[in-house]
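--- STAGE predict ---
source: upstream dedup step, 1 unique chain passed
mode: sequence only
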Amino acid sequence: MKALYIASSGMSAQERNVEVISNNIANMRTTGFKKQRAEFQDLLYQAYRRAGSQTSDQGTMVPVGLEIGSGVKTVATPRVMSQGNVNPTEKELDVAIRGEGFFMVALPDGRTGYTRDGTFERDATGQLVNANGYQIEPGITIPDGANSISISPSGMVEAYIGTATAPTQLGQLQLARFANKAGLESIGDNLFVETAASGPAQLGVPNQDGMGNVLQAYLEMANVNAVTEIADLIAAQRAYEMNARVISGADEMLSATSNLR
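--- STAGE serialize ---
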């Protein structure tokens, strides 16, 4: 009975849907996290009677066909790249992006990672790094004795060195953006990498050429809405239960058939 396999595909799809929602909820407090959503497509149809086929020699046609679908499949889990809330942290090396763009990070394997997580620190040599110790690109060194570090909305990093009365420019933060940012590949650690679908990175300075500006002592929170996720979770659970009920009903029909004498 095809209903068993159709309903099982529905249960599998809703199981994947719940996994996506679960990951969103788990990362509600993850800095710079972008939520995902599951997208579905129906499977192939078996046509028992095609619409438009002739029913007589006079040319009359079937107005509506007879097709039975094969179920559903999960085809994508795109990320929703909307802006998350920007909250103050009172930490001078925390930086949030308000608008378009990603920070660039030098990965150990030589690739460049992209992130919205601006939780930056200084390593033992004074280099500006992320929470995993990966250097921010382009490299910025904050020397010993630097104080009153400031990061302008355009990404210029300055500090007073020692007893100097004028600030010293230490470097310029740059951002990257993509034609299709939803096409970036997630590699964990709040990092994405470029793919053929995302297109190449377009580099620029914050607050110019369509790039967002940066805010010192702020961090961007996850763009996960708890109420929406719970509502989606309930809907997914109900869909799963209904597909399970279809399997139970189909099993009862098969049992009735096998008990015929």
